[in-house]
Design a protein that fits this description.
The chain has 259 residues and is an alpha/beta fold. The protein has two domains: 170 residues, 3-Layer(aba) Sandwich (Rossmann fold), CATH 3.40.50; 70 residues, Pantoate--beta-alanine Ligase, Chain: A,domain 2, CATH 3.30.1300.10. It has eleven helices and nine strands. α7 packs across α8. The protein binds adenosine monophosphate. The site of adenosine monophosphate has 17 residues, from α2 and β5.
Length: 259
């Protein structure tokens, strides 16, 4: 497994690996089983697997969330190696956003509802970095988690709108045995907060927004940002809550047998 820090390096490495299909798995690191499920799918379906490891400053608000985001590169690289990743692209922020950077991708409507309403600019940061990763790595397939259903919807729209030649592959949400969706941010939860956080997957599992809101209103110490049915593909019941200083998002598909 080769670790590349610059655009030039990953381009050169991708060219020398350019036999067959290329799968890209974008991550912000702190890998867990959710990420690993994407890497394993890419490993099965593609000749070359590229994982990006980049905590993208452009998708964080300026409130300390970026600085606080968990990072453990040595562990991530070990897990990537063990999962059969060929190339890791782990650039610095300056490499992705060189001085003077001013070109942004805005998925106007989808990027401004739900998560976009509570995190202004978030999806602009996501769409921009993912388009840039696509142009650098030029994958045939890119792998994302249904856990971030709105992110998938935003990226699907961007791919259509800009006629990008990449196949979007979406894998089901991986959960802990108690139902909590795996997330790098779960590491912030105290045992007591984690117990309270379980109210979110329990509420969403009703698959009914009114029942879910009522269930969350009764659970102590959760601040509900939203619980809404979103007309995505597939439609989902999506929710976001704050438990202490940790913000959690989750969703349950309302059609199909996807989890
Ligand atoms: P992140 O590192 O949080 O940006 O996530 C990288 C990718 O992993 C995104 O496509 C996420 O949707 C996906 N992902 C995160 N958590 C999960 C999960 N619990 N199950 C499946 N995919 C996930």
């Amino acid at each position: 497994m080769k670790v590349c820090r610059t655009v030039a390096e990953i381009r050169a490495a991708s060219t020398s690996h350019s036999r067959g299909s290329v799968g890209l798995v974008p991550t912000m690191g702190s890998l867990h089983e959710g990420h690993l499920s994407l890497l394993r799918a890419a490993r099965e379906e593609c000749d070359t697997v590229v994982m990006s490891l980049f905590v993208n400053p452009a998708q964080f608000a300026e409130d300390g969330d970026l600085e606080r985001y968990p990072r453990d590169e040595a562990r991530d690289l070990e897990l990537a190696r063990a999962t059969g990743v060929d190339l890791v692209f782990a650039p610095s922020a300056d490499e992705m956003y060189p001085p003077g950077f001013q070109t942004w991708v805005e998925v106007a409507e989808l990027g401004s509802i739900l998560e976009g309403e509570h995190r202004p600019g978030h999806f602009r940061g996501v769409a921009t970095v993912v388009l840039k990763l696509f142009t650098i790595v030029r994958p045939d397939r890119a792998y994302f988690g249904q856990k971030d259903a709105q992110q998938v919807e935003v990226l699907r729209r961007m791919i259509r709108d800009l006629a990008l030649e990449v196949e979007l592959r979406v894998l089901p949400t991986v959960r802990d045995a108690d139902g909590l969706a795996l997330s790098s941010r779960n590491a912030f939860l105290t045992p007591e907060e984690r117990e309270r956080a379980l109210a979110l997957p329990r509420a969403l599992s009703t698959r009914d927004p009114v029942a879910a809101r009522a269930a969350l209103a009764e659970s102590n110490g959760l601040v509900v940002d939203y619980v809404e049915v979103a007309d995505f593909d597939p439609p989902v019941l999506a929710g976001a809550v704050r438990v202490g200083s940790t913000r959690l998002v989750d969703n349950v598909p309302l059609e199909g047998d996807d989890e």
